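thread: overnight batch results

M.L. [08:02]
morning all. the overnight job finished for the chain we discussed friday. pasting input first so we're all looking at the same thing
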Amino acid sequence: FFSSDTMTKGTSSFGKRNGRSHTLCRRCGKRSWAIQTKKCAACGYPSAKLRSYNWSEKAKRRKTMGTGRMRHMRKVLKIAAKRQQEDAAGPHKKVKTAANRKSFVESRKAKAAATKK
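M.L. [08:03]
and the structure it wrote out:
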């Protein structure tokens, strides 16, 4: 019915699309690194700031803090939580030991002797 020499924009044209315009990105790992422009379409590498736009709320949610390994932030958050816990507990209390108890008893005896005189 159709001859192969007719010009079409569809099926026959799609078979010729076998080149690669994008390859793997070093920063985000997605196949979004544009070879010609040398820029990642997903994360914006090599720019210092991560690519994100307010018109795509879902994309921001996928890339936000807590969605990855958090190698550094995990430690930072733990330290902050510990510090907050210590602040809530109040000042550091002296550990009760036998030596502390002995010095306490001696000071009491000295005070008692001083009041008797």
